[in-house]
Automatic annotation (TrEMBL):
Residues 1-10 have a biased composition (Acidic residues). Pfam families: MORN, zf-C3HC4_3. This is RING-type domain-containing protein. Residues 1-22 are annotated as: Disordered. The lineage of its organism: Eukaryota, Fungi, Dikarya, Ascomycota, Pezizomycotina. GO terms for molecular function: zinc ion binding. PANTHER family: RADIAL SPOKE HEAD 1 HOMOLOG. InterPro entries: MORN, Znf_RING, Znf_RING/FYVE/PHD. It comes from Cryomyces minteri.
C-alpha cells in the first residue's frame, strides 16, 4: 500500500472522531504547507499573516450544521457532544421585551381602582387588580369592593377629567388602550337629600368636578373663593361670589347666547330666587332648582305681552296658574309676514316658526335670526 493510500485510510478511520472533512481542511491550517497554492483559485495562503480569531458564534453555528448532518441512529460526534448545551443553539442577542401596559397578550387587563364618596368628599385608592378582558366592568368592581351599594363607573383620562363607563360593558368594549395603566373610579350614588346638602355647603356631587377642583387648587388657588368679575373675551360673563371655583351665592351671569340671569347660584346652577331675561326678550322671575324653573314664578312674553303667573316643575308650567292675555291665541297663529294665512311652516335649519308656507318659500333669510333658509317645512298641528 502506498503512502497516499495509507493517509486516506487513516483519514477515514478518524472521520467519526473529529469534525467533518470540510471543516478540518478549513479550520486546521497545519495541514496546509507554507506558501502552497490553491489549484482552483491559484491564491497563495500565507500563514504568517495576522488573521482575526474566529467568532465564537460562527463555531457554534458550524457545530449545529455538523450535528444536523448526522443520520438518525448514528453515534453522536464526540467533539460536538462535548460542547455546552447552550452553544448548540443560536446565541444571538434578542431585543428586550416592550414594557407591559394595562392590556397584555394573555387576554388580561391590569387596572387601578379608586372610589369617590360625595358625602365625605374623599377619593380613595384601592390598589391594582388584574382580570380577564371578557369580564364585565361593573360586576368585577362590585366583587372587588364587596358591597351592594349602587355606584357609577368612570375612567380617569387625565388628572382633571374622567369619562363615564356605560353599564353592562366589558373591559374589551371600553377604550382602555395606551401606554398608561387604566384607572377606574367608582362613584357611590347618593340620595336627593344628601345631594342637596352637599351642594348647599359648596361641595361636589360628581367626581369630574372634584378632580378639576383639585387641579385648580394647585394651579390657581387665589381665584377659587371670593367675589370676582370674570369678563374675558372668549368666556361667559359673571360677576358675583365664587366657591371652590364655581358660581355659588348671588351673582349675574350672561351666557354666550345673550341669556342673562341675576339671582342665587348653588355650585354653578341657578338655584333659589332669580330673574332671567332670554335673548328674545322673554322674562322669567321666580324660583329655580338645579338650573330649571321650579316652584312659583311669573313668565312674560316680550312679543305679545302675555303674562303667566303660577306653578312650575322642572322647567315647565305645572299646577295652578293664571294667564293674562293681551293678544288672543288665534291671532298668534297668523303669519307674521302677510297676516292672512296661518303659521304653518318652519324654516330649516334654524327651526323658527313665524310664517305661512307660501311666505316661507319666498324668503331667503329667517326674519327672526337672519340665518340663511335652506328649506321650508310644512307643519301639521295636532288638536
Amino acid at each position: 500500500m502506498s503512502g497516499s493510500d495509507e493517509d486516506d485510510e487513516t483519514a477515514l478511520q478518524h472521520a467519526g472522531s473529529g469534525p467533518p472533512a470540510f471543516l478540518e481542511v478549513a479550520l486546521n491550517g497545519s495541514n496546509i504547507p507554507h506558501g502552497s497554492r490553491n489549484a482552483e483559485t491559484n491564491a497563495v495562503i500565507d500563514l504568517n499573516a495576522s488573521l482575526p480569531p474566529m467568532p465564537a458564534y460562527l463555531m457554534d453555528r458550524t457545530a449545529v450544521v455538523a450535528v444536523d448532518a448526522i443520520p438518525n441512529g448514528a453515534p453522536t460526534v464526540p467533539w460536538a457532544s462535548g460542547l455546552p448545551e447552550e452553544t448548540l443553539h443560536d446565541t444571538a442577542t434578542h431585543p428586550p421585551l416592550p414594557p407591559q401596559t394595562g392590556d397584555d397578550h394573555l387576554g388580561n387587563i391590569y387596572f387601578m381602582l379608586k372610589t369617590f364618596d360625595a358625602e365625605s368628599q374623599t377619593l380613595k385608592s384601592h390598589g391594582g387588580y388584574s382580570t380577564n378582558l371578557d369580564d364585565r366592568v361593573d360586576t368585577t368592581i362590585s366583587e372587588i369592593l364587596g358591597t351592594s351599594r349602587p355606584f357609577e363607573l368612570f375612567r380617569e383620562d387625565k388628572l382633571s377629567a374622567c369619562y363615564a363607563i356605560r353599564s353592562n360593558r366589558r373591559f374589551n368594549q371600553e377604550d382602555f388602550g395606551g401606554p398608561q395603566i387604566p384607572i377606574v373610579i367608582a362613584q357611590f350614588s347618593v340620595s336627593d337629600a344628601v345631594r342637596e346638602a352637599v351642594t348647599a355647603r359648596g361641595d361636589f356631587v360628581g367626581v369630574n368636578e372634584y378632580l378639576k377642583y383639585r387641579c385648580d387648587l394647585i394651579n390657581h388657588p387665589s381665584i377659587l373663593n371670593g367675589f370676582f368679575t370674570l369678563d374675558y373675551f372668549s368666556d361667559e360673563y359673571y360677576q358675583g361670589n365664587l366657591c371652590k371655583g364655581g358660581r355659588h351665592g348671588h351673582g349675574t351671569h350672561i351666557a354666550f347666547n345673550n341669556d342673562s340671569y341675576t339671582g342665587s347660584f348653588v355650585m354653578n346652577h341657578r338655584h333659589g330666587q332669580g330673574r332671567m331675561t332670554l335673548a328674545n326678550g322673554d322674562v322669567y322671575d321666580g324660583t329655580w332648582v338645579n338650573g330649571l324653573q321650579h316652584g312659583h314664578g311669573t313668565f312674560t312674553e316680550a312679543k305679545t305681552g302675555n303674562v303667566y303667573t303660577g306653578g312650575w316643575k322642572e322647567g315647565k308650567k305645572h299646577g295652578e296658574g293664571v294667564t293674562q292675555w293681551k293678544v288672543a291665541a288665534d291671532q298668534q297663529k297668523r303669519c307674521q309676514m302677510c297676516y292672512e294665512g296661518e303659521t304653518e311652516a318652519a324654516f330649516y335649519d334654524c327651526g323658527h316658526v313665524c310664517a305661512c308656507l307660501a311666505c316661507a318659500r319666498r324668503v331667503e333669510q329667517c326674519p327672526v335670526c337672519r340665518k340663511r333658509v335652506l328649506a321650508a317645512v310644512k307643519l301639521y298641528f295636532v288638536t
